[in-house]
Design brief:
Jelly Rolls; Arc Repressor Mutant, subunit A; five-stranded antiparallel beta sheet; 231 residues; single chain; Cupin domain; 9 helices; alpha+beta; 2 domains; four-stranded antiparallel beta sheet
Length: 231
C-alpha cells in the first residue's frame, strides 16, 4: 500500500496580527517541489519533523521548533518517516521579527500544549515591526522580463540564452521558466483568495484551462484550487 496522502488546509481570517493566511498540514508525504511565496512563511511544528531544502541547505524542525522562509526564496519540502503536524503562518514580507515570533510560539506551546488562533494572532501582533509595513519580496523587484521572455532578457544582459539561464538559476535556485510558472501560481493564489472563479483565474494567469491550473497548483501547494478557494 502507498503512503497516506497529506492533508493541507488554508484559512484567510481577518484582523489577525498581520497574518495573510494560515495553513495547516497533517500527513506523512508532505513533499512539495521547489516553489516560493509572495509572503514570509513561518512554519511551526507540532508533531513529527518538517524538512526543507532552502537555498541548497537542509533545514529541519521538530516539535516545538520553527522555520522562517523569507518571501521570494525558492525552497522545497521533503517527507520523513513519521507523520507531520504543523502550522504555516503567511505574513507580509518583513512585517514580523520572525526568530522572536517563533521563539514565542515555542514558549507558549511548551507551556500550554496547544496553539489556537487567538494565540497565533496575539503572538504575531506582539512581534510586528512597529516602524515597518513590510517590504516587497525579491521576486517582485526583478521585473517581468526574466520569465516573460528569456531570450529578450538575455539580449538585454548581453548574454546567450543558455548563459543567462545558468546565471539566473545560480542566483535564484530555479531556472527562469520555473520561476515564471511559480509567479503565475502565486498570482492565481491571490485571485483565488479574492473569490475569483477558477476558470477565470486560469485564463487570467496564462494557463491553458482549469485542469492545467489545477495540476500545477496542487503540485506546488498540495491542495486543489477549489479547496484552496473555499478556505
Amino acid at each position: 500500500m502507498g503512503r497516506p496522502p497529506q492533508v493541507w488546509d488554508y484559512w484567510r481570517p481577518t484582523g489577525g496580527g498581520g497574518i495573510v493566511e494560515l495553513g495547516t498540514v497533517r500527513g506523512l508525504d508532505v513533499a512539495l517541489p521547489v516553489h516560493f511565496h509572495r509572503e514570509d512563511q513561518l512554519t511551526f511544528v507540532l508533531a513529527g519533523r518538517r524538512r526543507f531544502v532552502i537555498a541548497g541547505d537542509l533545514c529541519e524542525a521538530g516539535p516545538g521548533e520553527g522555520v522562517h522562509i523569507p518571501a521570494g526564496l525558492p525552497h522545497r519540502s521533503l517527507c520523513g518517516a513519521d507523520e507531520v503536524v504543523c502550522v504555516n503562518l503567511y505574513t507580509r514580507p518583513g512585517l514580523h521579527a520572525a526568530p522572536e515570533a517563533i521563539a514565542a510560539l515555542a514558549r507558549h506551546w511548551r507551556r500550554t500544549g496547544g496553539l489556537g488562533w487567538p494565540d497565533l494572532t496575539r503572538i504575531a501582533e506582539e512581534h510586528r515591526h512597529s516602524l515597518r509595513t513590510g517590504v516587497e519580496p525579491a521576486s517582485a523587484l526583478m521585473g517581468g522580463e526574466a520569465w516573460d521572455s528569456v531570450g529578450e532578457a538575455a539580449r538585454r544582459a548581453g548574454m546567450s540564452r543558455e548563459g543567462y539561464s545558468r546565471r539566473f538559476r545560480k542566483h535564484h535556485g530555479v531556472p527562469p521558466h520555473a520561476f515564471g510558472l511559480q509567479e503565475r501560481l502565486n498570482e492565481a493564489r491571490l485571485l483565488l483568495r479574492a473569490g475569483e472563479p477558477i476558470a477565470a483565474v486560469a485564463a487570467d494567469t496564462g494557463f491553458t484551462d482549469q485542469s492545467h491550473l489545477g495540476r500545477c497548483f496542487r503540485r506546488a501547494f498540495g491542495v486543489t484550487p477549489g479547496r484552496y478557494r473555499a478556505g
